[in-house]
Amino acid sequence: MDETNFSLTQLQNWMQGMLIQHVPVSTELVEVSQVVNASKRLSAVKHLDIYRQSYIARLRACMQNQFGALAYALGNELFELFADQYLDANPSGSYTLNTLGQKFPAFLEQTRPDAGEEEKETWPDFMIELAGFEYALSEIFDEQAIENNTTPTNDAPDELLKLTPVFHLFHHRFPICNYYLEFSQGKEPDLPFPEESFCAVTRRACKLGLFNIRGAQYYFLLNMQQGSTVEEAKGELVKTFNFSRTELDKVWIDWRRNFIASGFFCLKEADKFGK
Amino acid sequence: MDGNKDKYSDTVKNLPNPGLGLGLRSKHFNYILEHNPAVDWFEVISENFMDSGGRPRHVLRQIAEKYPVVMHGVSLSIGSTDPLNWEYLTKLKNLAHEVKPIWISDHLCWTGVNSLNTHDLLPVILNEESLKHICNRINQIQDFLERPVVFENPSTYLTFKQSTIAEWDFLRYMSEETGCGLLLDVNNVYVSAFNNDFDPVHYIHQLPHDRIVQMHIAGHQHCGTHIIDTHDRNVVNDVWNLFNLAWQLTGGVATLLEWDSNIPDFEAYHAELLKAKQYMSGLAGINDIAEKLPDEEAAVSNPVDFLVSDILG
What integer pLDDT is reported at residue A274 of this predicted model? Predict the structure, then answer.
């Protein structure tokens, strides 16, 4: 077979196509043996196959690393099937592997097995929510933030409290946070039934904290996240959910203590210096 | 450009030898911070830290205050025909400004084209056209980073029919044309030599030894018909013997043990590195490069799953 005279660009396009697009070697116009040398132990095709096989295995391992709980929930075989399809459809375009799974939750939504059915099964919803949560955690882990804020003491006035710089709220249709926590503690959680759940994720001293919270706490903290003070967030809760202000003030004592202990709050900068 | 080439070349020749180093892996963060182990220096994977606003970057700042650090990248893609990624290079420069590495290194390879990244260190075609292309890119990058870059010979699993230059000569011409430094990965020489039918001893003899500022050693997996560069086990004797030869020829340079998969605890990792001391003198066994029996399990070259943030670590 004659040697093919590729330009650099042509050669790189050809080789990348062989890796990423899973182009069957025999259907290519250019035979591998025209481009790649055989050695005394391997044919040209076998040499190229080392790269082809490693490409998908390597990225699949990264996906498994980034979506460990999802891989457990789906089982390795099904996870690999989804991951391989995803990587086929969404080859990486980034210098970093941390964003490899960025579009995976959306991909799972688009390709859910019951996409064409009127009656939807619930397990794909769980898997999609879990995938989204795991990817969000990886983003929060690396989020740019200055974490030198002062943690308030229990007697700090409410008006000095603000949310800690790395603070995220989640509202799920399944007990996603519980499931993730059990998985990360080495337990073997069963697939859960649908059950509305709320959680907060913080990062303190560069470590993630995951906390299950109640619906009312979620909406209170959501208001603070949108810029409300403690007093304004309480007012919103009373107005929106028709809560008794007296009852809210009673439970606020416990909420406040728990929120401070969990690292949800830090002190406002200006007030820290008495300004 | 020639002025800069000479400047970079002089810088490379005057780079220090920090001694025996280890790769900084998230699994070992706590151990290092708590025990301050007697390691001469650490090599960090640039991409693991350049986007981090959390723990990896926080830990790196602390470690860089106590140990010399080298930044080793996997995404420069010096051989690619895509345009240079200035966003990536800017982040690399910013990280270097913060960490103050003794040098920055990457690989003689390409990782993708058409804005895609295979996250593999793919082999470059070794001919005049690619040499010119790569030297041009090295010049631009070194001028942007305002420092010489050090390039590593990759482990390769194929050679191209269109290649006309031996890899050792390609590396020599590259360093002569740009003033860049070289990182000799002894294990990669062994792996590539077995896979592509050349003599690893001849390869090491032919390199421009005065351009080599660092060596890598690592474990690999022998699959019978080929060897995969797995970085997941102890260094084999044949590679230690090649290291011994390279040590003699270079006069001794900074040496680092890579371990990226099945990473052992820190003490075992460090103990494997310290074996290098036995091979830093004398010329024992350099002609004794024997083929090894194959290992059994499936292998993946250049494992990269350790490059994904370990959020539970």
Answer: 45
